[in-house]
Write a structure and sequence with these properties.
The structure is a single chain. With 120 residues, the protein is α+β, with helices and mostly antiparallel strands. It has four helices and four strands. A four-stranded antiparallel β-sheet has the order 1-2-3-4. Helix 3 packs antiparallel against helix 4.
Length: 120
């Protein structure tokens, strides 16, 4: 088993429950960790034998571009797409951080983390 991490994917998009958040948007950071059997790719040195982190980044960018009220919802969509499109992935963890959230205080970020294991 191996781990691939794609860290600090930075995006500007429009998630949130408040109407203003939909209009002006916010900065977000996404961190992703997947588990898969990387033994074959470690031997073959071939991209086709591993989980392509370019594909992972693409999924994150596309799903983050679709407005959601809740960060949990967008994180779940990211995990669902990973499992649907990348059969080698056995586990996935996604953290989505809203930078400087509008919650009436000096808060650097709020972060939600979802983790799932592939169901057979």
């Amino acid at each position: 088993m191996g781990i691939i991490r794609v860290n600090n994917i930075r995006l500007y998009t429009n998630h949130g429950c408040l109407e203003e958040e939909g209009k002006i948007g916010s900065e977000y950071r996404v961190d992703l960790e997947i588990k898969a059997d990387l033994q074959k790719s470690a031997q073959s040195d071939e991209l086709k034998d591993t989980v392509d982190y370019v594909h992972l980044n693409h999924i994150v960018k596309e799903e983050m571009a679709i407005r959601s009220k809740l960060l949990e919802h967008v994180a779940k969509r990211i995990i669902d797409r990973i499992f649907n499109e990348l059969p080698m992935v056995t586990e996935a963890e996604v953290s989505v951080a809203k930078i400087n959230p509008p919650i009436g205080g000096d808060v650097e970020q709020v972060v939600i983390v979802l983790q799932e294991t592939r169901k057979n």
